[in-house]
């Protein structure tokens, strides 16, 4: 079946009751789908969704579209497909309820045939709601694409074409091809299904076809196998992709009834505790990033260009795998991972039957889990990037027998639908044993234990447990409680439980482990475990890319600040971002990203990270998800001679620091912390150079320069963006050499000239009251990002202005 974008313009407004009438504040307004109805609403400290959603409110939103239905559609099969609506979507056609879909992240289809008025204008409405139903920012509304499908009564089903590369060697790969066909007529029909395999060069390298007869009302599957010679394998280093084209014809008159296509790859997977994970026979350690689904300044709106940009930048930063936390990834994300060679752990859900928030998906899970699993597999099964299905994250009931039974049911259903990939689960032994927390932490033995200021918040609880958490996760109680739940998995995912890695190799010698979620500042130690222990196949940090909600979980507080109050991991209003990503929401790499690249062994050169000198000597409070408050800058508006702490990240024995060619001394690496040489020096402008040595030999250097002369406003459209309506424009304050000072932030205003609009505007600042809708924002560390959406044909330009600076203009293609 051929999907096309739903051919209509959309409006959205608050959902009104049957006897309510819209006013100026509730009147529907035009929007472009995909759209996030939550992003532009006012935030406030008293929001019922609180810190979890970044203090955004909840609400119920009504989307409306009108579309023409030709009389010729009377003999067709007509569907509308939603890739994602958050949440509890109710779909109406011409006022009549046509569907209800509880899940917020899974695609669903709505047959329209019985509701359409042929030869007339029809109305489609979608109600979506969000209220205290998640531990992070979800957004709301039709946040992923919508498709219209108009097909012959005899047609290929949506996602019904499959192509699996089986029996692969260097000489040839066998494709097991299948196509599901539906006959909605009252007559027996004989059809023919034809396939063509197109290689990465665009050359058709194999063709085949089979007949298929369908009785009235029958859905049947056509199958065949075809060989492809000299297969070009898909791998993270060489992501070669094949296109599989399928066509359905009527045997009676050879007329074409339907067609479909998919993109896939040829690759093999192997897994064992002695050799770990192998892709195409080659060992792969997963350099993983946990990521949430929002797109920063765009809110939760899932534009393909934004998803591609994020995956590309994560790959450039050294990651080779992502974990979709804690919900299924979008099609656009998987397509980007296929293109860029990013491996994927796609996760089903954050909850099963026991809730974590008042109105979360646990309410309907028992009734909808098969539907959710089916949607996950149907979306993923053709993507070579997907290697792991995760059936959950920190499931509360996992340590109980009933939780293990549910895990088995989920794992077996996934295997039934797709036996070609591995099944995992993000197990947190502490979370799975909340009721036994006192015993785990030793309180039952008469020792003092602190479960946290707010034991109902797992993040705060884990942060406050400190070193106790490692011992607790490795305890006999946890081992016994999770044994059955772990036994149903191909790969046991452990969240914050690296203390189990070595002992599990002894206690469970056939167990394969992945660090499904880990603290970001421990990557040096964690990566040594991954490379040393063959049964540990990778590490997924929390988190690779910063996100909305769980506000302030990775912040750094200065405890001598006026009015400071310790709040555990909950960032007080106006925190909006988690503030814990290697890469911020604009796509800018932070110092933590370069530290990780060094820890992975991918960067030989050192990297300079400067503690902000205006805070030198102040007492700081961090969470386990925090990085140091550092930036890669040597341009500061502090008096010369001011004390400053400089860290140099390096996989070396020692680092020498020089300022304007004069040595400031040599510091050993690893004394302050893993892979860090620390210097206490006085600030003076100039060029700061770090030279790293190992075994007395220079292995690399890194330099930072102070801004010289006037600093001006600059803006440039990014290249390499996936074709589409969005342009990404980087805005910076920089000197003539491109040096960006971090403490001269200004309010910038963006204006669009031509057929376009601001889709999003913002920075990586975690604590702000500024809206992402624009037209203005204050730069953060000298940077901002504007995303512009083209709305028509013709010249399009962007003008950026700021007080005290000459405005700049950027022409957009």
Automatic annotation (TrEMBL):
Tell me one Pfam family matched here. DUF4982
Q: Which residues form the DUF4982 domain?
A: 641-698
Q: Which InterPro entries match?
A: Beta-gal/glucu_dom_sf, DUF4982, Galactose-bd-like_sf, GH, GH2_Domain-Containing, Glyco_hydro2_dom5, Glyco_hydro_2, Glyco_hydro_2_cat
Q: Where's the Glycoside hydrolase family domain?
A: 726-810
Keyword Nucleotide-binding in record: no
Domain of life the protein comes from: Bacteria
Keyword entries, A-Z: Glycosidase, Hydrolase
Query: Which residue numbers delimit the Glycoside hydrolase family 2 catalytic domain?
Result: 277-436
Positions of the Glycoside hydrolase family 2 immunoglobulin-like beta-sandwich domain = 167-267
Q: Which family does it belong to?
A: Belongs to the glycosyl hydrolase 2 family.
Full protein name:
DUF4982 domain-containing protein
């Amino acid at each position: 079946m051929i999907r096309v974008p739903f051919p209509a313009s959309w409006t959205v407004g608050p959902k009104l009751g049957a006897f309510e009438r819209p006013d100026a504040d509730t009147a529907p307004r035009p929007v472009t789908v995909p759209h996030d109805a939550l992003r532009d609403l006012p935030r406030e400290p008293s929001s019922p969704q609180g810190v979890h959603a970044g203090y955004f409110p909840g609400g119920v939103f009504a989307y409306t579209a009108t579309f023409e239905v030709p009389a010729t559609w009377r003999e067709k099969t007509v569907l509308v497909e939603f890739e994602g609506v958050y949440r509890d979507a109710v779909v109406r056609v011409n006022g009549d309820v046509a569907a209800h879909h509880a899940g917020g992240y899974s695609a669903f289809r709505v047959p329209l045939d019985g509701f359409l008025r042929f030869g007339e204008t029809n109305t489609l409405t979608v109600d979506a709601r969000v209220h205290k139903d998640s531990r992070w920012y979800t957004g709301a509304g039709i946040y992923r694409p919508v498709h219209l499908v108009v097909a012959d009564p005899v047609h290929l089903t949506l996602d019904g074409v499959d192509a699996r590369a089986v029996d692969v060697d260097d000489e040839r790969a066998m494709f097991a091809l299948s196509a599901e066909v539906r006959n909605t007529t009252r007559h027996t029909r004989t059809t023919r299904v034809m396939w063509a395999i197109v290689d990465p060069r665009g050359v058709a390298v194999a063709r085949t076809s089979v007949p298929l007869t369908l009785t009235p009302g029958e859905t049947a599957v056509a199958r065949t196998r075809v060989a492809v010679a000299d297969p070009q394998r898909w791998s993270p280093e060489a992501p070669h992709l094949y296109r599989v084209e399928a066509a359905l014809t009527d045997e009676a008159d050879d007329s074409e009834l339907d067609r479909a296509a998919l993109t896939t790859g040829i690759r093999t997977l192997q897994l064992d505790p002695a050799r770990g994970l192998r892709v195409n026979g080659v060992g792969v350690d997963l350099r993983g990033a946990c990521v949430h689904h929002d797109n920063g300044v765009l809110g939760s709106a899932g534009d393909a260009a934004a998803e591609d940009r994020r995956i590309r930048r994560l790959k450039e930063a050294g990651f080779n795998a992502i974990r979709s936390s804690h919900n299924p990834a979008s099609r656009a994300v998987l397509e980007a991972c296929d293109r860029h060679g990013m491996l994927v752990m796609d996760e089903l859900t954050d909850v099963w039957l026991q809730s974590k928030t008042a109105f979360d998906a646990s309410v309907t899970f028992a009734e909808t889990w098969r539907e959710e699993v089916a949607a996950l597999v149907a979306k993923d099964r053709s993507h070579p990037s997907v290697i792991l299905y995760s059936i959950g994250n920190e499931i509360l009931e996992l340590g109980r027998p009933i939780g293990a039974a549910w895990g088995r049911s989920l794992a077996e259903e996934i295997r039934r639908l797709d036996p070609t990939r591995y099944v995992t689960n993000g197990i947190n032994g502490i979370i799975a044993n909340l009721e036994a927390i006192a015993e785990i932490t030793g309180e039952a033995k008469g020792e003092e234990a602190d479960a946290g200021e707010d034991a109902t918040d797992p993040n705060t609880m884990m942060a406050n447990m400190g070193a106790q958490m490692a011992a607790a996760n490795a305890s006999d109680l946890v081992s016994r409680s999770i044994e059955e739940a772990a036994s149903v998995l191909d790969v046991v995912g452990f969240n914050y439980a690296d203390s189990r890695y070595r002992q599990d190799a002894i206690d469970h010698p056939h167990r394969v482990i992945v660090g499904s979620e880990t603290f970001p500042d421990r990557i040096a130690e964690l990566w040594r475990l991954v490379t040393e222990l063959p049964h540990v196949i990778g590490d997924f940090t929390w988190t690779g890319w910063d996100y909305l909600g769980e506000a302030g979980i990775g912040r750094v507080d200065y405890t001598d600040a006026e009015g400071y109050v310790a709040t555990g991991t909950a960032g007080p209003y106006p925190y909006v971002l988690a503030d814990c990503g290697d890469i911020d929401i604009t796509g800018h790499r932070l110092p933590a990203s370069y530290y990780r690249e060094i820890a992975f062994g991918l960067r030989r050169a050192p990297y300079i990270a400067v503690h902000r000198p205006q805070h030198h000597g102040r007492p700081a409070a961090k969470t386990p998800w925090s990085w140091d408050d550092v930036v890669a800058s040597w341009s500061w508006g502090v008096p010369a001679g001011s004390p400053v702490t400089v860290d140099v990240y390096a996989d070396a024995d020692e680092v020498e620091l020089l300022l304007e060619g004069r040595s400031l001394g040599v510091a050993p690496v690893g004394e302050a912390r893993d892979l860090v040489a620390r210097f206490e020096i006085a600030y003076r402008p100039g060029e700061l150079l770090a030279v790293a040595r190992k075994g007395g030999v220079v292995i690399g250097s890194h330099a930072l320069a102070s801004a010289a002369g006037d600093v001006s406003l600059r803006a440039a459209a990014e290249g390499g963006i996936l074709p589409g309506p969005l342009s990404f424009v980087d805005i910076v304050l920089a000197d003539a050499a491109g040096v960006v000072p971090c403490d001269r932030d200004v309010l910038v205003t963006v204006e669009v000239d031509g057929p376009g609009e601001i889709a999003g505007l913002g920075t990586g600042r975690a604590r702000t009251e500024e809206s992402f809708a624009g037209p203005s924002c204050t730069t953060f560390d000298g940077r901002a990002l504007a995303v512009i959406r083209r709305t028509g044909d013709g010249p399009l330009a962007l003008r950026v202005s700021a007080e005290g600076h000459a405005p700049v203009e950027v022409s957009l293609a």
